[in-house]
From TrEMBL, chain A:
It catalyses: L-glutamyl-tRNA(Gln) + L-glutamine + ATP + H2O = L-glutaminyl-tRNA(Gln) + L-glutamate + ADP + phosphate + H(+); L-aspartyl-tRNA(Asn) + L-glutamine + ATP + H2O = L-asparaginyl-tRNA(Asn) + L-glutamate + ADP + phosphate + 2 H(+). Keywords: ATP-binding, Ligase, Nucleotide-binding, Protein biosynthesis. InterPro entries: Asn/Gln-tRNA_amidoTrfase_suB/E, Asn/Gln-tRNA_Trfase_suB/E_cat, Asn/Gln_amidotransferase, Asn/Gln_tRNA_amidoTrase-B-like, GatB, GatB_C_1, GatB_Yqey_C_2, Gln-tRNA_amidoTrfase_suB_CS. SUPFAM superfamilies: GatB/YqeY motif, Glutamine synthetase/guanido kinase. Its EC number is 6.3.5.-. It comes from the Bacteria. NCBIfam families: gatB, PRK05477.1-2, PRK05477.1-4, PRK05477.1-5. Belongs to the GatB/GatE family. GatB subfamily. PROSITE patterns: GATB. Allows the formation of correctly charged Asn-tRNA(Asn) or Gln-tRNA(Gln) through the transamidation of misacylated Asp-tRNA(Asn) or Glu-tRNA(Gln) in organisms which lack either or both of asparaginyl-tRNA or glutaminyl-tRNA synthetases. The reaction takes place in the presence of glutamine and ATP through an activated phospho-Asp-tRNA(Asn) or phospho-Glu-tRNA(Gln). This is Aspartyl/glutamyl-tRNA(Asn/Gln) amidotransferase subunit B. Heterotrimer of A, B and C subunits. It is an enzyme of class 6 (ligase).
From TrEMBL, chain B:
NCBIfam families: gatA. Keywords: ATP-binding, Ligase, Nucleotide-binding, Protein biosynthesis. The keyword Zinc does not apply. It catalyses: L-glutamyl-tRNA(Gln) + L-glutamine + ATP + H2O = L-glutaminyl-tRNA(Gln) + L-glutamate + ADP + phosphate + H(+). Its EC number is 6.3.5.7. Belongs to the amidase family. GatA subfamily. The active site is at 78 (charge relay system), 159 (charge relay system), 183 (acyl-ester intermediate). This is Glutamyl-tRNA(Gln) amidotransferase subunit A. Residues 24-472 form the Amidase domain. PANTHER family: GLUTAMYL-TRNA(GLN) AMIDOTRANSFERASE SUBUNIT A, TRANSAMIDASE. It comes from the Bacteria. Heterotrimer of A, B and C subunits. It comes from Paracraurococcus ruber.
From TrEMBL, chain C:
Gene3D superfamilies: Glu-tRNAGln amidotransferase C subunit, N-terminal domain. NCBIfam families: gatC (TIGR00135). PANTHER family: GLUTAMYL-TRNA(GLN) AMIDOTRANSFERASE SUBUNIT C, MITOCHONDRIAL. The gene is gatC. It catalyses: L-aspartyl-tRNA(Asn) + L-glutamine + ATP + H2O = L-asparaginyl-tRNA(Asn) + L-glutamate + ADP + phosphate + 2 H(+); L-glutamyl-tRNA(Gln) + L-glutamine + ATP + H2O = L-glutaminyl-tRNA(Gln) + L-glutamate + ADP + phosphate + H(+). This is Aspartyl/glutamyl-tRNA(Asn/Gln) amidotransferase subunit C. Belongs to the GatC family. Coiled coil: none annotated. Allows the formation of correctly charged Asn-tRNA(Asn) or Gln-tRNA(Gln) through the transamidation of misacylated Asp-tRNA(Asn) or Glu-tRNA(Gln) in organisms which lack either or both of asparaginyl-tRNA or glutaminyl-tRNA synthetases. The reaction takes place in the presence of glutamine and ATP through an activated phospho-Asp-tRNA(Asn) or phospho-Glu-tRNA(Gln). The keyword Transferase does not apply.
Length: 482, 495, 95
């Protein structure tokens, strides 16, 4: 069923393509030896190359190239063994060289595809047009001084992958799912940390609208959207704006727009005095980038398991498709789950991770990367249940104690004496006491009020501070009542 | 003999034998600069204190027996090479007060080998010019003058006019220079000295203010071919900081100067016989070929069919690259800033660049911007790149049959400062013989070979195969020996 | 192809070079002189010729991913015409 937005003249379809700028995970910049770490003091991670000083020359970082190739392989895309860097010429305060080094005519990665999962359980394939390497610009701060902008070049020269999709998406949900999936793949590959708050991933969103059966109409580009939620909102807002323009007899102008997150609308960027003319040409400081097939093969052989493959493996381990999906969303969750499930029942492990652990993370406002309970401890807890040391109830108590104290389950069991009682003689003694103290209820039970059975079990467990083995308590109650 | 009269080789021997110290040699040069530079304007910045300190340190090293190959030799550095802590202007107002905190690889190599830097020498602004008249620091005067017209001040050629004039007038034993379309060879020829543009990639471009990256090469100028060979060996070498630097061994170029030319095949390109070339240049060329034949070489006519397109090709490629390379001069991080009270950023850029760049630089930026712009790229820039490939192919085919090519270095001798200034294209024709080697990335050496009727020096050019500077030096030294060029400029130290 | 004054102004704007009104005509004439001379290249048959971009090496050398540079804000800012603390400063930019 096609997603549409209803205008005055009827339903409109959306056509959406995304250009994602993903910061390459690397120690040093693409063409200089300056650091890339986030959050440093202004202009402290700047070489003379990054600041565009006279006579400075770019030299490319091997690992950044490898990250682009890995990403290409992860997107099942064509790796171009011959690619080239061009200069994109324009003046801007945070563009020190007066040009951006980018791969315009000959990108390192060609066409590929991503499969996205939608709410209704269906999947859809989104085409990747290309991926290329380029330098990031610096940062302008416009709010520090009434009449001046301040320039920090720490980001200048940081390696970016620009990943361009085909205009294959048809709804905000699909755009969100695409970005989610792309981010997931990048994080699995370790080629981009996907941290949108820190600007490691930004999306330019291309949106147009059309009536069913039409060709593409004019599109607009919404620049620099920095969260998945905002991308979905920007798509919707921009589509509604365009529908209104068309329906009022106007014409959508191809332009660059910004998404105003506070007001939930897109607005035109200040019109440029110049029409853009980037005067791309091959960067004469950089010979072509030529890769050996054998190197690409090596990178391919060392790729980690990607989300789709991992999900399939979890299903094969006995998990439901839904559980497999949830556990593979974040690489860290999957890693946690695998530690817990290692040599244990996958289904039980999944239930604990998705149930008690997720609840504890929410409650304690922590994250799977720094979990409130170590994966190894949760695994041990499962072992203690399996060997009968702990009942389910006791296990929950131990888990909560682990969240509070961070101690191992073994230590908690010892300290608090939470070991399950399995001595049938001792259990029967306590059951006998319970029955003696509740002679009236025993009589009622015997006259047919059988649901009181649970009452006796509960009283026994209570008397045992929950430490009785539930099956043995059951057996004892049954035996002494008969 | 005055200390400034030493060749570089002679000075090395004199220092080794203890006949004089680097301090004495350096002082003699600084005195000569003080005496002659006000007229020649070859030096933009004289670094007297630093030079003397370097010389003393060099003498100390020599006493300790740890002399480098250029130990104690006073040199001039083209003001296009960044020198740490010393102002580097590129001959432009826009960099008038720029002090780089880093050293170019080439000048760093010279310091490593013990050289003393006398100062930074003048050049055409951003190396764009063939007469050294486009410098923001005023024109350089050629130390030579016409025998029958000594009052007409002549240009030293460009862009390395300060380098060539300083060396010719004995204000330095040698100098660094750069060559994008002929900027080493043309001024060397105009000033009666030798100069080589090595193979593209031989010298690192790191720290040299860029003009046209795919054409720029550093090289030396000096008074003999052997002196050029000695300097080039120190300047050369692989540099990981330049992605276009060639990772190839650096041979002993000076040793190659003595190889002789016996058995070599020398190509004589017929397309270099241009209409309008003065007959005395044609005669000198023929004379040079005869000298080589006399020493056992064979000369063969070859064809480089795309030669006539080289200059217009160059005047697309070089301005295109320059328009981009010079975008960084925007008044934000270094250099001149011009702004009105209410300037926005674009206005600041436009005022800064209008005030900071001279007319020739602006022209080339404009041409370069145009040939790269949408709708014109294919017709101009891409077309030029293709013709560049054809020019390279011409050389590849020619070098299948010859070891080196010999041509005139320039289409004329040095001209007057007020001549040829009306029309940019007339000025561009100065590079007609030299520009092909830049487009093809090949080594080219200019060697003084004779005088014209007015007593002005004329040079011949030797072009070699890529990374075969050794043959180029052998042929150049053979011409030099036969020419026995002893004429001296009117303005020179020690007179 | 010859340039009209509007094109000369447009190129100057792209190149961020302020041209005074009285400079436009002279610049136009000079540029057209150069472009007219360059025009001869159109006569060359370049069918099937691969463009030659660079001068030398056939492929890029790749450097190791190691931090070897930066950490010198004072040197980076030392030549700045206008700075504010650790930043370069320019007239306020409105996006």
């Amino acid at each position: 069923m096609t997603y549409t937005i209803d205008g005055k003249t009827g339903p409109w379809e959306l056509v959406i393509g995304l250009e994602v700028h993903a910061q390459v995970t690397s120690q040093a910049k693409l063409f200089s030896g300056a650091a890339t770490a986030f959050g440093a003091e202004p202009n402290t991670q700047v070489s003379f190359v990054d600041a565009g000083f006279p006579g400075m020359l770019p030299v490319i970082n091997r690992d950044c190239v490898a990250q682009a190739v890995r990403t290409g392989l992860g997107l099942k895309a064509q790796v171009n063994l011959w690619s080239r860097f061009d200069r994109k010429n324009y003046f801007y305060a945070d563009l020190p060289q007066g040009y951006q080094i980018s791969q315009y005519a000959h990108p390192i990665i060609g066409t590929g595809a991503i499969e996205i999962e939608l709410q209704d359980g269906s999947t859809k394939t989104i085409g990747i047009t290309r991926l290329h390497l380029e330098q990031d610009a610096g940062k302008s701060l416009h709010d520090q001084h009434p009449t001046k902008s301040y320039i920090d070049l720490n980001r200048s020269g940081v390696a970016l992958m620009e990943i361009v999709s085909e205009p294959d998406m048809r709804s905000p949900e699909e755009a969100g799912a695409y970005l989610t999936k792309l981010r997931q793949i990048l994080r699995y590959l370790g080629t981009c940390d996907g941290n949108m708050d820190e600007g490691s991933m930004r999306a330019d969103v291309n949106v147009s609208v059309r009536k069913a059966g039409e060709d593409y109409r004019t599109r607009c580009e919404v620049k620099n959207v920095n969260s998945i939620r905002f991308v979905m909102q920007a798509v919707e807002a921009e589509a509604r704006r365009q529908i209104e323009v068309w329906e009022e007899g106007g014409e959508v102008q191809q332009e660059t727009r910004l998404f105003d997150t506070a007001r939930g609308v897109t607005r035109s960027m200040r019109s440029k005095e110049d029409a853009h003319d980037y005067r791309y040409f091959p960067d004469p400081d950089l010979p072509p980038l030529v890769l050996e097939q054998s190197w690409v093969d090596q990178l391919k052989a060392s790729l980690p398991e990607l989300p789709d493959a991992r999900r399939a493996r979890y299903v094969a381990m006995g998990l439901s498709p839904y559980d497999a999906h949830v556990l593979t969303l974040e690489k860290e969750t999957a890693a946690y789950f695998e530690t817990v499930a290692q040599g244990r029942d996958a289904k039980i492990a999944a239930n604990w991770v998705m149930g008690d652990l997720f609840a504890a993370i929410n409650r304690t406002k922590t994250s799977i990367a720094e979990p409130p309970v170590k994966a190894e401890y949760l695994g041990t807890l499962l072992d203690l249940m399996k060997d009968g040391t702990l009942s389910g109830t006791l296990a929950k108590a131990v888990f909560e104690a682990m969240v509070e104290t961070g101690k191992s389950p073994g230590a908690i069991v010892e300290e608090r004496g939470l070991r399950q009682v399995t001595d049938t003689g001792a259990i029967e003694g306590i059951v006998a006491g319970v029955l003696a103290a509740n002679a009236d209820k025993v009589a009622e039970y015997k006259s047919g009020k059988e649901k009181l059975f649970g009452f006796f079990v509960g009283q026994t467990m209570k008397a045992m501070q929950g430490k009785g083995n539930p099956a043995l308590v059951n057996d004892a109650v049954k035996k002494l009542l008969s | 003999m005055h200390p400034t009269d030493f060749t570089l080789r002679g000075a090395i021997e004199a220092l080794n034998e203890g006949l004089l110290t680097s301090e004495e040699l350096t002082r003699a040069h600084l005195d000569a600069i003080q005496a002659l530079n006000p007229q020649l304007n070859a030096y933009v910045t004289v670094m007297a204190d630093q030079a003397l300190a370097q010389a003393k340190a060099s003498d100390a090293r020599r006493r300790e027996g740890i002399a480098g190959p250029l130990e104690g030799l006073p040199l001039a550095i083209k003001d296009l090479f960044c020198t740490a802590g010393a102002r580097t202007t590129a001959g432009s107002r826009i960099l008038e007060n720029f002090v780089p905190p880093y050293e170019s690889t080439v000048s760093g190599n010279l310091l490593r080998d013990g050289a003393v830097f006398l100062g930074k020498v003048n050049l055409d602004e951003f190396a764009m010019g063939s007469s050294n008249t486009t410098s923001s620091f005023g024109p350089v005067e050629n130390p030579w003058s016409r025998a029958n017209d000594p009052d007409t001040r002549l240009v030293p050629g460009g862009s390395s006019g300060g380098s060539a004039a300083a060396v010719a007038a004995r204000l330095a034993l040698g100098a660094t220079a750069t060559d994008t379309g002929g900027s080493i060879r043309q001024p060397a020829a105009f000033c009666g000295i030798a100069g080589i543009k090595p193979t593209y990639g031989r010298c690192s471009r790191f720290g040299i203010v860029a003009f046209a990256s795919s054409l720029d090469q550093a090289g030396p100028v000096a008074r003999t071919v052997e002196d050029c060979a000695i300097l080039l060996r120190s300047m050369s070498g692989f540099d990981p900081k330049d992605s276009t630097s060639a990772d190839v061994p650096v041979p002993d170029f000076a040793a190659a100067c003595a190889r002789g030319v016996k058995g070599l095949r020398i190509g004589v390109p017929k397309e270099y016989r241009l209409e309008g070339t003065p007959p005395e240049i044609e005669r000198l060329w023929e004379q040079g070929l005869q000298w080589l034949r006399d020493q056992g070489a064979e000369t063969v006519e070859i064809s480089l069919p795309h030669t006539k397109y080289a200059l217009p090709t160059y005047y697309i490629v070089a301005p295109a690259e320059a328009s981009s390379n010079l975008a960084r001069y925007d008044g934000v991080r270094f250099g001149l800033r011009e702004a009105a009270k209410d300037s926005d950023l674009k206005d600041l850029y436009e005022r800064t660049r209008a005030a900071g760049f001279g007319p020739e630089v602006k022209r080339r930026i404009m041409i370069g911007t145009y040939v790269l712009s949408a709708g014109y790229y294919d017709a101009y820039y891409l077309k030029a790149q293709k013709i560049r490939a054809l020019i390279k192919r011409d050389f590849d085919q020619a070098f299948a049959g010859v070891d080196a090519i010999v041509t005139p270095a320039t289409p004329s001798a040095a001209f007057g400062m007020d001549e040829k200034q009306d029309d940019p294209v007339t000025m561009y024709l100065n590079d007609v013989f030299t520009v092909t080697a830049n487009l093809a990335g090949l080594p080219g050496l200019a060697v003084p070979a004779g005088l014209d009727a007015q007593g002005l020096p004329l040079g011949l050019q030797v072009i070699g195969k890529a990374f075969d500077e050794e043959t180029v030096f052998a042929v150049g030294a053979a011409i030099e020996t036969a020419a026995d060029f002893r004429a001296l400029p009117r303005l020179r130290a020690g007179v | 192809m010859s340039l009209d004054t509007a094109m000369v102004r447009r190129i100057a704007s792209l190149a961020r070079i302020r041209l005074e009104e009285e400079e436009v005509g002279r610049m136009q004439a000079e540029l057209n002189g150069i472009l007219g001379w360059i025009e001869q290249l159109q006569a060359v048959d370049t069918t099937g010729v691969e463009p030659m971009a660079g001068g030398g090496a056939v492929s890029l050398r790749l450097r190791d991913d190691v931090v070897t540079d930066g950490g010198m804000p004072e040197k980076v800012l030392a030549n700045a015409p206008d700075r504010a603390g650790g930043y370069f400063a320019v007239p306020k930019v409105v996006e």
